[in-house]
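thread: overnight batch results

M.L. [08:02]
morning all. the overnight job finished for the chain we discussed friday. pasting input first so we're all looking at the same thing
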Amino acid sequence: MTVEKNERCALVGRNGAGKSTLIRTMLGLQTYQEGSSYLHGKSNKKGDWKKFVSYLPEKFQLYPNLTGKENMEFFAAVSSKKIDEARIEEKLKLVSLWGDHDKYSREYSKGMLQRLGLAIILYFDSDIIILDEPTSGLDPVGRNKILNIIKGLENKTIFMASHHFEEIKKVCTHVAYMDDGKITKYTMDEFMEHHLKDAT
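M.L. [08:03]
and the structure it wrote out:
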């Protein structure tokens, strides 16, 4: 399966199908017995993909005793000696958190934490963005905020695990469907025709 540049591809499948496992093996965070994967044309074996890919796991570990802005500064400092304060402000405004940037992240709601995690990975301005259930556990308002941010991103290749058909339709152009260890890629229209016609 190939995800082309600037596509927005949803990774879907039943619970336990292996969506998160696939993402972790793609990133070299989990070993696999056979096969190969490439991100931005780079093998995941050496971690060369890290220059081109940002990854937001379903449960992103933030520091509760740091403010939202301090969390961003910490992660920014991991990759660069110089922190771009203007970019931090820009990304926090993008996710509607600039007004809460001086609050400790332990005071954030789950939706705010998800948006902060998204702001952190967007800070790096990577070509490829991989998201594992980015709206998991959020209420409809929080889910829509995250989806609108993702939908508004331009010139990005997005690979997003999800099991919410409505959000897939709103954000994605293609669907990679996992079933019994196999992956089939569809355009959104093809997926709706093949898999959702009986559910509507």
